[in-house]
Amino acid sequence: MNKLKSFVAVATCAILMLCADTTLAATYKVAPKDSLYTISQLFNTTTDKLVASNSLKTIEIRPGQKLDVPAKTYKIKKGDKLSKIAKKFNVSVTTIKKANHLTSSKIVKGKTLLIPAAQPASASKAAANPTPVSSSSKAVISYTAPEVDLLARLITAEAGGESYNAMVGVGGVVVNRVQSNEWPNSISDVINQVAGGYYQFTPVKNGWIKKAATDEAKKAAMAAINGSDTSKGAMFYFDDSSKNQWLWSKPITVRIDHMIFAK
């Protein structure tokens, strides 16, 4: 009898483990510019967990390599739209596009999508993160009201003495990073990112980010979120008095006032 109980317990445990893996794990195909860090950010996990779950001996990965990631899958049905699917799982359209290497919002019935950090829309009110703002149909990325304020405060700290176009350019750099597979996938994560011990944005390090945003900066923040990009696709910006040779070595996209924008 004890042997029977033991067998049932082991079998039950195995079934539970199998179900858990099926629910929480999916396969992601590595893209050319991917790194374990960018993948960990996309799927809300850590590089250490990715290394462990995939039995990797190094953090180096190659395009085309397949990795187990914490995500769910969704089979596209007739009448589905990417925005509808994003709302259902309480994730952004940008996140789904990045996870599935989509260059547009067009989807095909029968195809299967990876859904990072999937969460039913009914549970969104209980989520720790604020509900995405939906007042602007022009937005090119998902955002929340606190993120608009955060972006406006960054713009105030970085370009408060510059022209409106320079302010929009600073916002454009943040939006460009959100849209890129090489950076985190939200305004908050991009601005607060600390990579290799280095803050990506000085105002976060020195505390200037805490200063209230100006009305003009708030306007510039929304313009950038709605697709205005005076930085011309830049991923970096810096003052023309900078002595940082690494920044100056980047391809310059445009100069606005005293600010240099580069890729």
Keywords for this entry:
263 residues; alpha+beta; Membrane-bound Lytic Murein Transglycosylase D, Chain A; Arc Repressor Mutant, subunit A; 2 domains; 3-stranded antiparallel sheet; globular
What does this structure look like?
The protein has two domains: 26-126, LysM domain (Membrane-bound Lytic Murein Transglycosylase D, Chain A); 145-262, Arc Repressor Mutant, subunit A (Orthogonal Bundle). By secondary structure, it is an alpha+beta fold. Helix 6 crosses helix 7 (164-179) and helix 6 (145-159) crosses helix 10 (215-225). The termini are far apart. Strands 1-2-3 form a three-stranded antiparallel sheet. It is globular, with a radius of gyration of 21 Å. The protein has helices at 2-24, 36-42, 47-53, 82-89, 93-99, 145-159, 164-179, 187-192, 202-206, 215-225, 245-248, and strands at residues 25-29, 66-75, 112-116, 194-195, 198-199, 236-239, 252-256, 259-262.
